[in-house]
Amino acid sequence: MLPVVAFPFEDFYIDTHHMVHRLAPREQQILFYLGLLAAALGIGGIRAVLCPMGAYSLQAYDQHQLLSFFNWFYWLVNLNSTVVFLGIAYIQQSVAQNLGFLIPFTSVLLALIAIHMTRSKLTFKPRKGGSLLTTLGVFLNSLKMCCLHRRHLSGEVVSWLDRAKENNGGRYSEIHVENVKVLTKLFPLYGLQLLYRACVTQIPSGFYIQAMNSNLHLDVLLLPIGAMNVISILPLLLLAPLVELVTTCFVSTGKSPLAPHKLITLGHACAALSVLGAGVSEMWRRLHPLVEQTLSGKVLQVSSMPCFHLAPQYVLLGVAEALVTPACSLISFQLTPNHIRGISLHFLTLSYGGGCFLGAFILQLVHAISGDFYPNSLQDGNLEGFFFILATLMAVNTLLFWRVSCRYEDLSQRGEALTCSPLTEKLRRYKATLRFYDAIEPAV
């Protein structure tokens, strides 16, 4: 919808004829937000299924190969983002705004045609019992049985989820419940990614406003604001091959590479330092005198500080993304049984989207307490205060993850034993014991 919505927002030319839109501001806003909602739904659907779809074929791979897959997967995603921010952003800002909408519309249309042509190779049928409805059903049935237990039922269980088992009066088999219990152990990992994602979303929000109010001129060239995003993507494009090389060297020499949970802790620390640096750079930006700068036909009063002074905070967030995202995907995939590995990655993607809402909630809360963080003129605001608050919260979040990261240290158990019931496992041990005793010859 956005290519269609873009035209009524401003006057435009068809050949030599000057056209003026006749839409009221309210109708413009309705069309604009409908377009944004459609784009958000499309992006959310793609991100929710793209990585699990590729990971379904990795069931027999080891930890090093899985980390390599996730590294190169996100490397390709960010390579695409680099082309977008350097090419399309420049076209939209300096050539034609509506053409900037038309290019992604055409590319998505071509992608849909390509997916339709190869749909037979992209279809995957998950194993029975590995659906999202089954997983959610275990939670709901456990809550229902816990409520009944307080009124009518008796007996104690180890976990409240055990109430959903058939032998405890629930509706689900022991295999399904045990798999969901493993998934719940990853909830602290998902929850502690929320604040981290709130820091990452400062690139298109708080950092974007900082760049827009800084000097974007490079000699005579006016840089697109999206070019600053490339500074955060370059560390990932450089670090992903470097991490792959270092990990391969460690594996070939028999040494253990840095554990994924340590990479996540280091990445969270980089995110906290990035937001802290953003607050310092905002204080520095406000000390520079104002100059005039033209953006999209409007003359703005911006700081004379070059936008490249903001580069350290972008670089730190890029390093954090290179460390955190592949490691989180690896842990989510490796520590869950085969049946629900795709669902585990779905929950991880959900935590990323939840971080965007958390960032917006923190911003609204801070704005309600003190409304001068995002004024009409950023020169009169206190944006650095918001960054310092977010940096403090992220530092606490990093310490919390460091305390709970020990449970994600051992990735050698891939969850295969949980695809069978504990009773079956006991029978296997019993048979193994019988074979052991049969192997002992009686003494003469």
TrEMBL record:
Cellular component per GO? membrane
Q: Which residues cross the membrane?
A: 30-51, 72-93, 99-118, 231-251, 314-333, 345-366, 386-404
- Record's keyword terms, sorted: Membrane, Peptide transport, Protein transport, Symport, Transmembrane, Transmembrane helix, Transport
Mention one GO biological process in which this protein takes part, according to its record: peptide transport
**Domain of life (superkingdom):** Eukaryota
Compartments it resides in: Membrane
What is the protein's membrane topology class? Multi-pass membrane protein
GO MF terms here are: symporter activity
Q: Which InterPro entries does this chain map to?
A: MFS_trans_sf, POT_fam
Keyword Transmembrane recorded? yes
Q: Which Pfam families does the entry mention? A: PTR2
Query: Which family would the database say this protein is a member of?
Result: Belongs to the major facilitator superfamily. Proton-dependent oligopeptide transporter (POT/PTR) (TC 2.A.17) family.
Q: What is this protein called?
A: Solute carrier family 15 member 5
| Organism of derivation | Oryzias javanicus (Javanese ricefish)
Source lineage: Eukaryota, Metazoa, Chordata, Craniata, Vertebrata
